[in-house]
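Question: I have long wanted to understand how a fold can be written as tokens. Here is the record:
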Amino acid sequence: MVYNYSAEVGYVGPVTTVYTADKDMLLSKFDSVTAGSTIKSAGTLAVNVDGVDYTINIAEDETFGSLIDKFEEVGINATLIDGVLQLNSLDKDFSIDVANSSSGIVTNLGLVYDAELGGYTASTQVVEQTVSYEKTVDGSVAEHSSLDTQIGLLNISSGSLTLYRDGQKATVMVDADETFEALQEKIHTNFSDVNIRFKDGYLEIYSANGAKVEVGATTDTSNITAITGLSSYGMDYARSSREMYCVNGDSKITTSGLFARGDVTEGTFTIGDATFTVDENTTLNNIISQINSSAEANATAYWDTVDGKFVIKSRVTGATYINIEAGTSNFTDILGYTTSDRAVDGSINSTKINTETQEVGGNAEFSINGTEFTATTNTITSDISRIKGVTLNLKSISQGESVTVEIGKDYETVANAMSDIVDAYNNLMTNVEKEIAADGNLNDQTTLKLIKNQIRSLMMGSVATGSTFKNLSSIGIASEAANATNISTANIDKLHFDKDKFISAYKSDSEALKNLLIGPDNTSGVLSRIESVVEQAIGSASGYFSSAENSYNNQISRLDKQIERATQAVATYRARLESKFQYMDMLISEMQDQFSSFLAT
């Protein structure tokens, strides 16, 4: 008995293109997945030809051509015609022992036995196997345009378009609100054999009779050639320079037929920590605007009109994924960022992020004095580098090259900070002096006057630090005291800051300057002592401001009680007067009655 196995081998892309196997095609193209496991064509194939067992070894890089040669070597006639793989042994018995074969070629290619074939080398029955695949991350998520696509969806404007058929010119009007099929009908009124088609997503304008077709002229008012890149260079027909997709920023994303993976449903989805809502009026631009304006999303988005992709980029540097979660809308599933198993009502049974759709950035890797570091940002602060007060900005990769960073003291910044302290002191003295003056609001606050004098004394006095500098005047901070040319003492409390003298002191002995201002170990400097005075005044429960506040609150409470008692006294007095008035009114009424009676008699 002759056993024969046949199959038509092909795989289908996301549109309708069928790729038919030829001798150069790899068998691994047709590896299949069942129950989560991959059935590989590579492996061993056990065959029996006329009672003799043979083992055919199928390699990972095996092609149909090399496999045919291996079948021929064991006496099996093999052919591949129009994608049909035909195996027979003519007048010999031939069988495949699937149970003892590790190769899944029988399943993957759909090989079946047909007793009617006998020794005939061509199959009378086609067994078709279709291997489907999803588009890769870099591929478009949008659906290709077709003759039914509205022209304006491709951002093509209305206007004129010039066509040439074998040099003969015709002008047609492009209407952005019409379909490509309507445009084709307009072309037919001039050239009946010139058609429009979309082939593998590319727009083509061609002649059914083989005439040369060219498009575009300087007088055209439609931007169709600019948008599509239509050109006839080296061809007899015009072809777009890229695949054309029926989605743009103004597309309402729930419109049917826009995306290759299906239609988007209304609902919610999450990017970062932000949740976004899709309804029947939501456009791609709406979603993009919401993502870009959301601080919680921590990402930016845009629609790639060239490749038909929705691109999301993280605002966070480093090797971290963008958090993308499917919600009640399948928007992220359709884009390919997530994969969800949903119930009939659209609710999620399970969902996962497709990490392969994200190109994760890399962490910054660098070394300082031989110590290796890794950071998620190019801005290296002291908490990462352990270099106090220094921030490093990594500008570019310098593999194998070292960069020397010289770290010096920032005299200017320290001097400016000291100048701010002097200004703050002068403002404090001016404001306090105004309030405690004879006509001031706080002229009776002796404690406040004492605090002011304590701070002034510390700023003007000396500190025993055992260092070069004993007081602030030695580092450029001195009062504007009276002198021979100016005997006024109006500004005696005001300090003047000599920046140059301060920087000179800093450069000459920074440690002594620090001891004067902050203090050495176990000893307080000028600013440390002032800080202690201020903290005691405002920080503790027994401090001046807390005590003053309590005192004022007590006074207010006493006054409130006095007002309450006075109000009650007034109310009592008023009630007494009203009672007397009523009694007097009653007496007057009685007297009038008596007088009337007297007159009557």
In short: The longest strand covers residues 5-12.
